[in-house]
Design goal:
The chain is mainly α. It is built from 8 helices and 2 strands.
C-alpha cells in the first residue's frame, strides 16, 4: 500500500492532523494493521517538500493541520484511476521453497507442499470466517481480498501437488552445476 498516496487521498477530502490521518487511514482502508505515526509525519514532511501538501492552522491542542495542494489533488486523482503495477520479479517465498524442495535430492517435496497447502487452507478458513462477520464496506473489501488470495494459493498448491505426483523424482532432481561462475569485479584495463 502506498502510504504516501493514501494520506494524500484523505487530505484531498479535507485538512487533518497526523493522528487523525492515521485513524482515517485505518478506517478507510479496511486494514488490520496500523501505520506508525512517525511514518505518517515523515510522509507529511516529504509531501510538503514536494509541494503536494501545505501546513495549515494549529488548533488549541497543538494539532498541526495539513491540506492537499492543487498539485496534491491532481496527483492522487491520477493514482486512484491508474492501475497499480504488479510486482514483477518479486520473490514469492512459498514458491521458492517448493521449487527448491522439488529439485533437491532426498527432500519430500510433496510433504513440504502439503504442509504449505494445509497452512493456506487454514488461512482460507480464517479469512472466510472473518468475511462473514458484519463489517463496513472498507473492511469487507479487505476481507474478500484475503479470501480470494487464500483460495488462489490453495488452488495453486493443489496444482503443484498434481505436478509433483506426475513428475518422477529422478527427472526433477538437479545436481549441483559444474559450471563455475566468475567471482568479483572484472579486471581493470589501464
Amino acid at each position: 500500500m502506498s502510504v504516501r498516496q493514501s494520506l494524500l487521498a484523505i487530505l484531498a477530502q479535507g485538512a487533518c492532523y497526523g493522528y487523525q490521518l492515521r485513524s482515517e487511514l485505518e478506517r478507510r482502508s479496511g486494514s488490520d494493521w496500523s501505520v506508525n505515526v512517525g511514518q505518517i509525519y515523515n510522509t507529511l514532511d516529504r509531501l510538503e517538500r514536494d509541494g503536494l501538501v501545505v501546513k495549515g492552522a494549529v488548533d488549541a491542542q497543538g494539532h498541526v493541520y495539513y491540506a492537499a495542494t492543487e498539485a496534491g489533488v491532481a496527483s492522487v486523482s491520477g493514482w486512484l484511476l491508474r492501475p497499480l503495477p504488479t510486482a514483477s520479479g518479486s520473490r514469492d517465498e512459498v514458491a521458492t521453497k517448493i521449487a527448491l524442495a522439488a529439485t533437491l535430492p532426498g527432500v519430500d517435496a510433496e510433504a513440504a507442499t502439503r504442509a504449505e497447502r494445509d497452512a493456506a487452507a487454514d488461512r482460507l478458513a480464517q479469512a472466510r470466517a472473518a468475511a462473514t462477520e458484519e463489517h463496513d464496506l472498507a473492511r469487507s473489501i479487505a476481507h474478500e481480498a484475503r479470501v480470494a488470495g487464500a483460495e488462489a494459493q490453495v488452488r495453486w498448491l493443489d496444482r503443484v501437488l498434481e505436478r509433483l505426483a506426475e513428475t518422477p523424482e529422478a527427472s526433477r532432481v538437479q545436481p549441483i552445476s559444474q559450471s563455475r561462475p566468475r567471482r568479483g569485479r572484472p579486471a581493470r584495463i589501464a
